[in-house]
Write a sequence for this structure.
């Protein structure tokens, strides 16, 4: 009886068309967009997405695109492998690329060229092409962000009726267009500190989704610090089981603390699960185990690894550089880290290491003498000792096919050969590293620290660590300023950092991240001549509508 009633209603009630137009002026802005707005291709439910069904990666990317279109518009497309007449078609290979024998003689593709893609919209539909599968994924994200967000009440219900009692045929008009795109920088990263506050695997996945939406391809995962050890080391089980917990947490910058035990850690299988999830979104996870400072969470479990000197307390406690057990400990930890994480980069921290204990520690001073370290007028003996530790780890990682990344303090004792510098204390360290022909990732506090307040009025915002970094300043960052042209090739890219001393829940993370990541994504992806802040502001509202639909928080004010 119900089916008969529905059919009668379908015959009697009016059918209305709810049409909206796609807008290719997304964030980050594609490299080249040419449109003919006088002509459009109309996409609606029942049309198909074509792909190579024998290609598992392409199939996955086609499925992503299908899900995103339905999520934002309600339009349900059919998966139609190898259908040349489908509305949307995915294919590998870019027009103009050489094929066959001649292609073998061509210069190797840069990482940016491997991410290149084209989108062509004409009478035949939407054709997506890319050199590699990652380019198909980037193109699918561009189409996703070009879509209007259709209100649920405008969509056809499961029974064929809207709440208003009429059929609504949702249709998206795509203006004819040719889009050619590839990123400016090969390293486009975002960081999250999971030591100060621990975030569950389900949220990390959503964080990765947010990075992928913005064209990021690197997730810097800060796994250890004074406040908690978050990585399971099977050879040292107490490290996470005990070092992953603390007795209290800070409430705000006034110095107040709660009295609630807090902690958690990620098992190696959970890490592998996140690695698989990230790989499907073409994101590499760069794990960080911070040493020789920022390591009290380990020292409380293994106190024998600290210097045995008086009056060294709190954050001044660091690993003893002269204790042979220290390097054994580090190699055990980093060995298991390499077993779990396939990342070509491994981050060793290296920042903010006080040397007062080392200056008075007999073991550290004996090691300095044993190594034959001398005062060279540039680097203190203790800084040179830290460089020796860095080099030992870098050599250990190199044997496993990995490169070492460290914060810019690793320059202070002489830079380790092959080490990558993450320049956070301004860009000076990065400029110096590039001068020495070392690769650099720019992440200066003045432009890239998203734990800072984004509005001048602190009372209108959740807690932050302090300082002030508005959206306008993030957008103004130019990573190559002050770097001679011949040394610019050493700047791999840009990263934002999100430290979580006062950020303890997911929606707070999103609030600090967005929309500043939108601004940084154009720094990472776009040429300087493409950037215009007023134009960026005009493009931002559509992306905020997407945030509302997928349920992520963001700062609604703009400075």
């Amino acid at each position: 009886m119900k089916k008969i009633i529905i059919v009668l209603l379908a015959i009697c009630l009016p059918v209305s068309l709810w049409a909206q137009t796609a807008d290719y002026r997304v964030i980050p802005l594609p490299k080249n967009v040419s449109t003919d707005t006088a002509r459009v291709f109309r996409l609606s439910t029942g049309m198909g997405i074509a792909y190579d069904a024998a290609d598992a990666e392409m199939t996955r990317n086609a499925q992503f695109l299908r899900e995103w279109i339905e999520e934002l518009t309600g339009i349900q497309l059919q998966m139609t492998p190898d259908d040349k007449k489908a509305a949307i078609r995915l294919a590998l290979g870019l027009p103009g690329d050489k094929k066959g024998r001649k292609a073998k003689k061509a210069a190797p593709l840069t990482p940016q060229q491997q991410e290149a893609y084209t989108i062509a919209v004409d009478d035949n539909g939407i054709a997506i092409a890319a050199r590699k599968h990652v380019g198909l994924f980037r193109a699918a994200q561009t189409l996703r962000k070009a879509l209007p967000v259709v209100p649920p009440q405008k969509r056809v219900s499961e029974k064929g009726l809207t709440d208003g009692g009429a059929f609504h045929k949702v249709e998206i008009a795509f203006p004819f267009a040719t889009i050619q795109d590839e990123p400016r920088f090969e390293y486009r990263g975002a960081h999250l500190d999971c030591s100060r506050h621990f975030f569950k695997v389900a949220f990390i996945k959503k964080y990765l989704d947010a990075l992928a939406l913005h064209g990021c391809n690197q997730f810097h995962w800060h796994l250890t610090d004074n406040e908690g050890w978050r990585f399971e080391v099977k050879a040292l089980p107490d490290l996470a089981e005990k070092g992953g917990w603390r007795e209290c947490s800070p409430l705000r910058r006034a110095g107040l603390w709660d009295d609630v035990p807090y902690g958690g850690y990620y098992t190696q299988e959970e890490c592998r699960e996140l690695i698989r999830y990230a790989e499907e979104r073409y994101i590499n996870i760069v794990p960080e185990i911070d040493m020789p400072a920022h390591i009290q969470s380990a020292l409380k479990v293994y106190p024998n690894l600290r210097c045995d000197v008086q009056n060294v307390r709190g954050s001044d406690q660091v690993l003893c550089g002269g204790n042979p057990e220290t390097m054994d400990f580090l190699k055990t930890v980093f060995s298991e880290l390499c077993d779990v994480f396939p990342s070509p980069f491994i981050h060793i921290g290296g920042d903010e290491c006080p040397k007062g204990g080392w200056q008075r520690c007999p073991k550290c001073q004996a090691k300095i003498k044993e190594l034959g370290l001398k005062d060279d007028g540039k680097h203190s003996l203790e800084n040179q000792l830290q460089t020796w530790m860095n080099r030992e780890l870098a050599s250990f990682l190199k044997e496993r096919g990995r490169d070492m990344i460290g914060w810019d303090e690793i320059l202070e004792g002489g830079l380790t050969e092959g080490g990558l510098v993450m320049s956070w204390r301004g860009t000076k360290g990065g400029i110096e590293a590039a001068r020495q022909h070392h690769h650099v990732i720019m992440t200066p506090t003045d432009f890239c620290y998203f734990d800072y307040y984004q509005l001048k009025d602190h009372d209108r915002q959740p807690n932050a660590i302090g300082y002030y970094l508005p959206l306008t300043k993030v957008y103004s960052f130019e990573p190559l300023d002050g770097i001679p042209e011949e040394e610019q090739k050493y700047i791999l890219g840009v990263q934002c950092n999100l430290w979580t001393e006062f950020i303890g829940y997911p929606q707070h993370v999103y609030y600090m991240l967005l929309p500043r990541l939108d601004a940084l994504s154009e720094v990472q992806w776009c040429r300087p001549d493409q950037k215009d802040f007023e134009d960026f502001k005009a493009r931002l509202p559509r992306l905020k509508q997407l945030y509302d639909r997928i349920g992520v928080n963001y700062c609604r004010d703009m400075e």
Notes: The first strand starts at residue 15 and ends at 21. The CA atoms of residues 424 and 444 lie 4 Å apart. The mean pLDDT is 92.
